[in-house]
Design goal:
This protein is mainly beta. Helices cover 0% and strands 46% of the residues. The chain is globular, with a radius of gyration of 14 Å.
Length: 127
């Protein structure tokens, strides 16, 4: 069973950046759709971004589009989420999720589409 571990969270000031990483317990995640979700206290877990097999497509929520960038290290077992121009509204626990999709070139920001999750990493944006 694939295991995911997130890292890179922390406390930053508004306008600063962070780079989150998601490492898998398998050799490569090339044929997995990967997504990032976040959950603020008292809120539902929401989709932030996803990337499809072979990086054919990437999707972003309207709240982060233009500020966050999803990527993966091709042929390797790590994905990343670059968080730029952070605001206090971005404060949440960020989760990496993955599901094997073969050659599918689409991804979904729907938490029910993913069967493997990491434990989460805290991102706090505060002055």
């Amino acid at each position: 069973q694939v295991q995911l571990v997130e890292s890179g969270g922390g406390l930053v000031q508004p306008g600063e950046s962070l780079r989150l990483s998601c490492s898998a317990s398998i050799q490569t995640m090339d044929f997995y759709a990967i997504a990032w979700f976040r959950q603020a206290p008292g809120e539902e877990r929401e989709g932030v971004s996803c990337i499809s097999t072979l990086d054919a497509n990437a999707e972003y929520s309207s709240a982060v589009k233009g500020r966050f960038i999803i990527s993966r290290d091709k042929g390797r077992n790590t994905a990343h989420l670059q968080l730029n121009n952070l605001t206090p509204e971005d404060t949440a626990v960020y989760y990496c999720a993955a599901t094997w999709v073969g050659m599918s070139r689409s991804c979904k920001m729907d938490k029910t589409a993913y069967d493997t999750w990491g434990q989460g990493t805290q991102v706090t944006v505060s002055a």
